[in-house]
Write a structure and sequence with these properties.
By secondary structure, the chain is mainly α. Helix content is 57%, strand content 0%.
């Protein structure tokens, strides 16, 4: 049951725009964090 709940939680987070990345060990999140940081610093068009 927990795996089904986890899957649903991950899907909801993805729908909200949260980057979902499979853990592959040390350094696996580095690229995602760089992208998030770069996106946060970019000017926004309204």
């Amino acid at each position: 049951i927990r795996l089904l709940e986890r899957s649903a939680e991950i899907e909801r987070l993805g729908d909200l725009g949260v980057p979902i990345v499979r853990w592959l060990g040390d350094g696996s999140l580095d690229e995602v964090l760089r992208d998030v940081s770069r996106t946060a610093g970019a000017p926004r068009i309204r």
